[in-house]
Specification:
heterodimer; A: Muramoyl-pentapeptide Carboxypeptidase, domain 2; 52% helix; globular; B: 3 strands; transport (chain B); Longin-like_dom_sf (chain B); ER-Golgi transport (chain B)
Chain lengths: 157, 118
C-alpha cells in the first residue's frame, strides 16, 4: 500500500534530520527524546480521531487492548502480536515484525541505531495513552530485528 | 457580562454531575459505553446537556428552558459536530493541547450551530 511506504520513508527522514541536527557523540539521547516528543504530540491527535466513534473504554486493560489492536492496525497495518501484563500496571507489547524496522535490517548490524527508530513510536503510544487519561512511561527494546518489545509502565497520578 | 458569568457558573456546577455519570456508580454497563450523557440537570432557566469523549474532554451545552422544540437527537447531533470540530483542532500541529481554542473554523462551526438551535 502506497501510504505505508510514505510513512516509513518520512519516518526515516525525520530520524536523519534530527540526528544531523545534533552534533557530538553524546547526543544520541537528545535525538531520541526529540523523536519521542514528536511521537507524543502525534499520538495525542491520532487517538482523538481514532476514538471519536468508539464506545467508552471500560478500564485500563480495555485501553491497552485498543492500542494493540485498532490503534496499531491503523498506524502499522497489523496488530501487536503479543500483549503481556503483570496486572499491576506494566504491559509488554510485542511486535514480531515491526514495520519501521523491517527496512533497516534483519540481523545485528544496525542494533545501535535501533533506539532511534523506536523513539517516535514510543512517544506515539505515550501520547495516545496520555489523552485517554493514562499517564505512562514507554520504552522499547530490540533483541532480534525486526522484532521488538514496547514496555508501558502506568504511572499512578 | 453578568450573563456570561452565570453561564460559566452553570457549566462549572454541571461538571460534578458529569463526573458522577461517568464514574458509573451502580449503573448498568451498557449505559456507560455511550459518549452522550443526556440531560444533566434542569434548572429554572436552563437545561444542561453533557457529553464526554474517550479522551476525557467534556462538552456541555446549555439550552434555554423555554426552548421546547429542541429534540434529543438534535442535541446529540450538536455534540457530534462539536466532537468532530474538536478532533480537527486537536490534529492541528500548531495547536498545543490544553491551550484555549483559537481556531476560526471551530468558532464558526459553533456559532452556526447556535444560530440553528434558536
Amino acid at each position: 500500500m502506497a501510504d505505508e511506504a510514505l510513512f516509513q520513508f518520512l519516518h526515516s527522514e525525520i530520524i536523519q534530520y534530527v540526528n544531523s541536527a545534533e552534533t557530538g557523540e553524546s547526543e544520541n539521547g537528545r535525538c531520541v527524546s526529540k523523536l519521542e516528543n514528536m511521537g507524543f504530540r502525534v499520538g495525542q491527535g491520532l487517538i482523538e480521531r481514532f476514538t471519536k466513534d468508539t464506545p467508552r473504554f471500560k478500564d485500563e486493560l480495555d485501553v491497552m487492548k485498543f492500542i494493540c489492536k485498532d490503534f496499531w492496525t491503523s498506524v502499522f497495518k497489523k496488530q501487536i502480536d503479543n500483549l503481556r501484563t503483570n496486572h499491576q500496571g506494566i504491559y509488554v507489547l510485542q511486535d514480531n515484525k515491526f514495520r519501521l524496522l523491517t527496512q533497516l535490517s534483519a540481523g545485528k548490524q544496525y542494533m545501535e541505531h535501533a533506539p532511534k527508530f523506536l523513539a517516535f513510536t514510543c512517544g506515539l503510544v505515550r501520547g495516545a495513552l496520555s489523552n485517554l487519561g493514562v499517564k505512562s512511561i514507554v520504552t522499547a527494546e530490540v533483541s532480534v530485528m525486526p522484532a521488538c518489545k514496547f514496555q508501558v509502565m502506568i504511572q499512578k497520578m | 457580562l453578568n450573563g456570561e458569568l452565570k453561564f460559566h457558573y452553570t457549566v462549572h456546577t454541571s461538571l460534578d454531575v458529569v463526573e458522577e455519570k461517568i464514574s458509573g456508580v451502580g449503573k448498568a454497563l451498557a449505559d456507560q459505553r455511550e459518549l452522550y450523557l443526556g440531560l444533566l440537570y434542569p434548572t429554572e432557566d436552563y437545561k444542561v446537556y453533557g457529553y464526554v469523549t474517550n479522551s476525557k474532554v467534556k462538552f456541555v451545552i446549555v439550552v434555554d428552558s423555554s426552548n421546547t422544540s429542541l429534540r434529543d437527537n438534535e442535541i446529540r447531533s450538536m455534540f457530534r459536530k462539536l466532537h468532530n470540530s474538536f478532533t480537527d483542532v486537536m490534529c492541528n500541529p500548531f495547536y498545543n493541547p490544553g491551550d484555549p481554542i483559537q481556531s476560526k473554523a471551530f468558532d464558526s462551526i459553533v456559532s452556526t450551530m447556535m444560530v440553528q438551535a434558536c
